[in-house]
Amino acid sequence: MTEKIIEALKKAESLLESKDLDSHAAQLLMQFITDKSNASLLADMREPLTPHQKRDFWKGLNEMLDGKPVQHIIGEELFYGYPFKVNEHVLIPRPETEELVQGALYRAKKLFASGPIKVADIGTGSGAIAISFKKERPDAEVTATDISREALAVAQRNADRNQAEICFVQGDLAEPLAGKVWDVILSNPPYIALEEAQSMSKTVLDYEPHHALFAEENGLFFYKRLAKDLPKLMNKRALIGVEIGHQQGESVHALFAEAFPDAVIETVKDINGKDRMIFCEIV
Ligand code: SAM
Ligand code: GLN
After folding, report:
1. Strand 117-122 and strand 214-215: pairing?
2. Is any ligand 2 atom within 6 A of the Cβ of residue 188?
3. Residues 6+ apart with CB under 8 A from 94
4. Is the pLDDT assigned to residue 182 strictly greater than 90?
5. I need a labelling partner for 119 at 20 to 30 A (CA). Which of 103, 111, 137, 247 fits?
6. Domain 89-282 indexed as CATH 3.40.50.150
């Protein structure tokens, strides 16, 4: 039996909702299956699906009902307007992290109006922060690190795809950055406390790498190490920007205030009003 796009979508959305899953993902899957933009999908809602499309749509939807992220079926996610390939080796970049990039670009513009700047992204995953920063600020010389070689391979492909020149280095946290001084260091390290695993969705827990999500010491392990390691790596005038968990504002602020007593340190909320970033301006 033929099925119109709108019929399949409505059914799919209510199935996802009944499992407390994100119903908007059905539309992303449909756009992928029908190879339509958002606008043409809306215009073509009454078109019937071909038998192939129908089969592929319901196969993908069933995987999503089992918890698989739609980005793993489509193979990519948009971040800061740029496409990023994602797979089981990298965190799917989140909209909150776009706010970190935006805040960093804004502050970097004030601090370093022109001229080449040396920028590093620690724990780059898919390359989202490093690549979008480079695309928006082409005069930046960007280095991106990760402990995971598999993640770096994905990030390298994303850099090629987006035509961004990035230097990728494998290593533990700030270690690959030693011996140079940096104008901007950004990081979205793992920050979820191990105890939080029990309240997390299957879509994250079963499909995203745990070494990208979880951190010891109540989620603060990597901030403690960064606060210890970054002071000797920063230029006299410099910017640090890190993403944080929404309950970590005070603790991470205090760690950086101790490490950089003369810096201006801001805790910044995300679009949902939650503490989400710490910026540290060293002047
Ligand atoms: N930057 C990406 C983003 O914002 O979408 C990925 C962030 S993910 C939360 C954290 C990343 O840190 C993962 O890619 C993980 O492999 C990496 N990572 C974990 N431990 C690390 C370590 N000790 N040194 C360097 N990177 C590490
Ligand atoms: N924001 C991500 C999540 O909620 C976690 C990212 C991180 O640990 N840095 O799944």
Report:
1. unpaired
2. yes
3. none
4. yes
5. 247
6. yes
Task: Return the ligand number nearest the Cα of 96.
Answer: 2
Residues of the chain with pLDDT > 90, as a percent, come to: 99
5-74: which CATH topology? Answer: Helicase, Ruva Protein; domain 3 (1.10.8)
The closest-lying atom of ligand 2 relative to the alpha carbon of residue 214 is 8
Which residue CA neighbors atom 21 of ligand 1 most closely? 147
Element (H, E) at 243: strand 234-243
Please tell me if the CB atom of residue 245 comes closer than 6 angstroms to any atom of ligand 1: no
Separation between Cα atoms, residue 283 and residue 281, nearest integer Å: 6
pLDDT of residue 115 exceeding 90, the answer is: no
Would you list the domain boundaries of the chain? 5-74, 89-282
Distance, in Å, from the CA atom of 112 to the CA atom of 177, rounded to the nearest integer, reads 20
Q: Which atom of ligand 2 is nearest to the CA of 190?
A: 8
| pLDDT tens by residue, 120-174 | 999 999 999 999 999 999 999 999 999 999 999 999 999 999 999 999 999 999 9
Residue 211 beta carbon below 6 angstroms from any ligand 2 atom = no
